[in-house]
Structures are given as C-alpha cells and as structure tokens.
Amino acid sequence: RRHIFDRLESLLEGLAPDRGSLSVVLLDVDDFKAINDRHGHPVGDRVLQALAASLAGMLRPGDEVARVGGEEFLLVLPRTDRDGAVRVAARLREALRDLRVAAGGGAPITITASIGVATAGPGRDNPAALYAAADEALYRAKASGKNRFELAAAVS
User: How many whole angstroms separate alpha carbon 26 and alpha carbon 73?
Assistant: First the structure.
C-alpha cells in the first residue's frame, strides 16, 4: 500500500505541462462480505487473487496496481487523461463480467465492482486529494446501485 502511494506522489510531483495527465482508478468488489460469509474466507481469498491477476494483466508499462484495503484496489495510470481513464474503467467492468471463481462444488462466483475515477492535470500534485476524489466517486457508484463507475469532479 505504501509503495503505490509513494509512487503516486512521485508521479504527481513530476507531472509537467508537457506530460499531460495522470489518473487513478479505485475499485471495490461489490458485496465482498457476502462472498466471505457464504463461501468462506479461502474462496474470498481466491476472488481477490483472481481479481489481482486480472487487473495486473490489463496494465500498460508504467501503470501500477495495489491492494489498498480489504477488497479495494488502486490503479495508478500515468499519461492517462479523463477519457483514457473512463476507457480503463469500462474495460475493467467487462473483464470482471467474464471472471469466474470456483466456489468448491457450487456454481462459480461472478464478481462485480464499483469504481471511482479521478484525474489530475499539471499543477495538481496532491495525492491525498486525488485519492479522496476517487474514493468519493467510488462511494457514489456504490450508492447508485453498484457494478458501475463514477467520475470525480475536478481535482484541485
């Protein structure tokens, strides 16, 4: 967790006008507690492992992903403007739609996630504000019915 926040801070500090934007995508597995309660923690762990592998497989060189909370993952996307981050969020939802995790004899578990997207441009070098904006957008996605993404307002 600390590594990705240190990396985010470093990237934001180096964001020059000619280098464009940087975006973060904060993803939270929907109803993860219910997965653990119904199928047990070993299956919940497999869900997180499958999700982490799927996220890692989608990264470009220079992108980073880390688990930052129980079922939350943060993607740091250098050289990615708001439109690019929206495309990433849409691809994430598509990839999750196709992801199945074995549940020990029963039907495989399908996964959905709520996603918050925030973008910082040159001169916007506050990692805490960027993360908070993505977190607030994630909260709105959950409150709006889950399995969706929301965009943060402009980050100051």
Answer: 6
* Marked catalytic residue, from 9, 13, 64, 71: 71
CATH 3.30.70.270, domain 2-151, yes or no: yes
Model pLDDT for residues 66-91, shown as the tens digit of each residue: 999 999 999 999 999 999 999 999 99
Tell me the three state secondary structure of residue 71: coil
Contact 47, 111 (CB under 8 A): yes
**117 strand-pairing partners:** 25, 151
Q: What are phi and psi of 35, to 5 degrees?
A: -65, -50
Q: Residue 59: what pLDDT? A: 92
Among this protein's residues, is 72 annotated catalytic? no
Torsion of CA 150, 9, 76, 115, to 10 degrees: -20
C-alpha span between 146 and 112 (Å, rounded): 8
Task: Please say whether the beta carbons of 73 and 95 come within 8 A.
Answer: no
- In this structure, the strands spanning 22-29 and 113-120 are antiparallel
